[in-house]
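Notes on consecutive records. When two proteins share a document, each keeps its own sequence and its own token line. Never mix them. Below: protein one.
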Amino acid sequence: MIRGGSRERAKAAWKARDLGGLTLHECRHTYASFRSPRGANAKAVSTYLGHATIGSITMDRYGHLMPGNEAEAADLLDVFSRRGSN
């Protein structure tokens, strides 16, 4: 049985599997980084992380990981360019 606080339990679990440890902040960042490109709702990720607003922290930090951002923006620019040239 593993006793102690969450940090001690985590250290024991990592040691049992011969892994290096992570801080709580690194765990939060890893969670958000893995959820974002898999299509998780940005507002949900923001809420899970306890961010006050979606824009000021969540999107600034993890927005580049969200799927389709660059391709979607490029496609929209192409559509607008074609409309202007016709």
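Protein two starts on the next line and is unrelated to protein one.
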Amino acid sequence: MQIRARHQKLDVPASKLKTEIARILKEEGYISNYKTQEEEGKLILRVYLKYGGAEAGHLRLGAASRVPAAVCTSATTRSSASKAGWASRS
């Protein structure tokens, strides 16, 4: 059994970054709309959520982790790093 709240809107503290993300989400069709407004002396970002049938956009946000530098090495990267003095000394 799956329970869904189906909220119409979401209010979060506003920032330039969050507003830009909301703009992109609207442009891509994940949300129906957004706006910033002042409430109780603080700026908030109100996001109007979008629901639909099977074609509804599903969005999962989470923290992105950084890939360790040791994993992202190639022959070119290693030789460039060695020339620059960045290679680890074993």
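For the record: Strands lie at 9-13, 31-39, 42-49.
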